[in-house]
Design goal:
Layout lengths: L9 H10 L19 E5 L2 H11 L3 E5 L14 H9 L2 E4 L5 H9 L4 E4 L39 H18 L4 H25 L7 E4 L5 H6 L3 E4 L11 H14 L3 E4 L6 H9 L3 E4 L15 H16 L3
Parallel strand pairs: 1-2, 1-3, 3-4, 5-6, 5-7, 7-8
Helix pairs in contact: 1-3, 2-5, 5-6, 6-10
Length: about 325
């Protein structure tokens, strides 16, 4: 990940564990966890919190390390959160998305560690992959060398993760295994239906190319035969090169692109600047890293359906 996202050291982790609940932070509410009479799950951020809640139902007590509105990439684990992970029955996280979470989980003695990345396949996405404007871009972005973590934006991969989480819950909490199995099947069915909505809704469009502020939608684009052109790489706050901006403007004109998409948790300044220069519109395409009052929906499914409508409008659905 980007070097500005600091890893916390083993010493810091040990200190945090020792401090436990004695240290409070701005994220304290998200760490109120564990030692309940339910199956206690700590999820690293919203998409995994949502899976745990949908699969676990009334049998689980779920807390998220990332508060609504917080950029999950930038999360720094607090002492209280470290202690909460240690007291929980399971931790659900996505390796390589949040380095501070990876560091704490690797040293935690929590019995059940569920890495969502291990439950599906990850690929490399970014400006140098699958994008024709990118072939002319000479800017360097170390993050593009890594695997794209945004697997939840592809309903098919998200369903695979759901199935893996369900099995992990069954194994860790066998007395409620039947319910976990039933709820997992219901969630996967809904995700299958969402996949069908996207596939049919994006099958016939005037253009297949869309521009986003950062490369969060590579899996979604690949799944439905689209091409994502990202202003930045996988890092939502990196700055694009001047040449990259010019290439995007040329590509937009050549491919009939109408819209530059920005997202709810990151500044829209770059998107609006490029859109103004290229005489394009702007709209929201939400990577669903958290649900806030600004979100176009109240949960994963409603926001994804809003994303579908935004794409249909921008691409010229027929």
């Amino acid at each position: 990940m980007n070097v500005r996202r600091r890893h916390i050291s083993g010493i810091a982790i040990a200190a945090a564990t020792t401090l436990g609940l004695g240290t409070l932070s701005a994220c304290s509410d998200s760490a109120a966890a564990a030692n309940t009479d339910k199956f206690d799950v700590v999820a690293s951020f919203y998409p995994l919190q949502y899976l745990a809640e949908q699969i676990g139902g009334s049998h689980v007590h779920v807390t998220s390390l990332t508060t609504p509105g917080q950029e999950p990439h930038d999360l720094e684990i607090s002492a209280q959160q470290t202690a909460a992970i240690g007291r929980s029955d399971a931790v659900l996280y996505l390796k390589n998305l949040q380095p501070s979470v990876d560091a704490v989980v690797s040293q935690s003695e929590v019995k059940t560690k569920i890495d969502a990345a291990s439950l599906t396949t990850e690929e490399k996405h970014g400006n140098e992959v699958g994008g024709h404007a990118a072939t002319h871009d000479t800017s360097k972005n170390d993050e593009l060398a890594g695997l794209d973590p945004h697997i939840w934006l592809d309903p098919v991969r998200y369903a695979q993760v759901a199935e893996g989480v369900g099995k992990a819950f069954e194994k860790a909490d066998p007395k409620n295994a039947a319910d976990y199995r039933t709820r997992t099947a219901a969630l996967v069915k809904r995700l299958d239906a969402l996949n069908t909505e996207f596939r049919t809704g994006l099958a016939n469009t005037r253009t297949k190319v869309f521009i986003t502020t950062h490369a969060a939608f590579g899996y979604l684009a690949e799944r439905y035969g689209l091409t994502e052109e990202a202003i930045n790489g996988l890092d939502p706050e990196s700055e694009p090169s001047a040449k990259r901006v010019k290439d995007l403007e040329k590509m937009a004109k050549a491919d009939g692109v109408t819209t530059v998409f920005y997202e709810t948790l990151v500044s829209d300044k770059t998107a609006k600047t490029i859109a103004a220069d290229a005489n394009l519109k702007t709209d929201v395409l939400d990577p669903i890293e958290g649900i806030t009052k600004k979100s176009r929906g109240t949960d994963y499914f409603s926001v994804q359906q809003a994303n579908l409508k935004a794409l249909q409008k921008a691409l010229g659905s027929k």
